[in-house]
Hints:
Main location: membrane
Subcellular location: Cell membrane
Structural class: mainly alpha
Membrane topology: Multi-pass membrane protein
Transmembrane segments: 49-72, 84-103, 109-130, 142-161, 173-192, 230-251, 257-277, 289-308, 314-340, 352-373, 379-399
Keywords: Cell membrane, Membrane, Transmembrane, Transmembrane helix, Transport
Amino acid sequence: xxxxxxxxxxxxxxxRLLPALLLLLTVFGPISMDLYLPALPALTADLGAATSxxxxxxxxxxxxxxxxxxxxxxxxxxxxxxxxxLVGVVAYVAxxxxxxxxxxxxxxxxxxxxxxxxxxxxxxIAQAAGRDVYSGGAxxxxxxxLTVVGGLAAIVGPLLGGQLDTVTDWRGLFGxxxxxxxxxxxxxxxxxxxxxxxxxxxxxxxxxxxxxxxVLLSDRVFVGAVLHQGFMYAALFAYLSGATFVLxxxxxxxxxxxxxxxxxxxxxxxxxxxxxxxxxxxWSVPGTLAVGTGLAGLGxxxxxxxxxxxxPLWVVVVSLLALASGVATTSPPATTLALVGYxxxxxxxxxxxxxxxxxxxxxxxxxxxxxxxxTILPLxxxxxxxxxxxxxxxxxxxxxARAAAPTVLRVDLDADPVHS
Length: 420
C-alpha cells in the first residue's frame, strides 16, 4: 500500500493534518453557493430587488466557481500550490465580508462572483495537491473522500443556512462564511506545506498554459472523463435547483419533511462516494463509472415517469436518492482518470474538470424552472438528457481505450506521484 503522503512532506510539522485540511478546502466553495438560499426572500425584500435579479447572486457564484478553478489550476502548476491557495482564501474572506455589508443587489452580485472565484481555488488546490502527495489506491480513496465532503457541502448548505437563519439575517450568513474562511486561512498557514516542488513546476507563461490545455484536450480519455462529469453534475445541479419545488410545492412536504428527504439523499451521497472510492480501487475504475451512471439513469428515469404520470411521493424521493447516489459513485473514478496521467499538470487538469462540472451545472440549473414550479417534467427531462449524454461520453471513452490499448482505463496502483 502506498504511503499516505510523499516522503518530502512527512518531515513537515503538521503533515498528519494535511489530509483533513485538503478535505476542508473543498467545503467553502460549494457551501458558499447555497448556504444563504433560505434567506433569499428576505435578502430580495431588504435590498428592494426583483426576484430574477436576486437569483443572479447564485448564478454569479456558480460562474465564479467555474472560472476560479480555471485560473487557479494553471497558476498553481507554475507558482506552486501554497501561495495560490493563500491568496484565494484571503480573497474569500474579503469578498464574504463585502457580501455581508453590500448596500445594493448589484454590488452583491459582483461580490458573489468574486467570492465564487475565490472558493474555486480551494477545490482545485485540494484536487491537485492530492495528486501531488497520493498515489495508487490512496489516490482513489482520497478522491472518494473529496466527493463525500464536497458534495455533502453543496447538499447540506441550505439545511445549515436554514438553521442559521433562525438566529441571524442574510447578512449574518455571509458573516458566518467570512469567519469560516478566516479559520481556514489560519489552518492553511499552519498546516499546508508546499506540495509541488519547484523542480516539478511548469514555466513559459500564458503560451505554456495554452500548450498545456491543448495537451489535455487532445487526450480523448481525459476529455471523455471531464465531459462525463460535466453532464453528471448538470443532472446533480438540476436536482438541487428543482427538488425544493417538487417536494414542497407539488407534494406539499413540510419544511421538516423536506429536511428529512434531503438528509436521506445526503446520506446516500456520502455512502456512495465512500464506496465508489473503495470499488474503483479494488474492483474496476470503468466498472464503477458504469454502475454510477446506470444508477443515476434509473433515478432520472423515475423523475421523468413522475412528470408524465401521477406517482406516489416515495417514487420521487427514491428517484432523487438514486440520482444523487449515482453522481457520487462516478466522481472518484472519473476524477482519478482525469488527473492520474498528468502529475505535472494536475492543477491545470483539475481546473478544466472543475470548470466543466460547475459550468454545466450552472447551465442546467435554470432549465428546471422554465415550465414553472407546478410540474416535475422539466426536472425529469433535464436529468434524463444529462445522464444520457454522460453515458455517451463514457461509451466514447471506453471505445477509445479499447482502440488505443487495453490498459488505458486501468489506473496504475503502483504509480509514483513524484516520478511518474
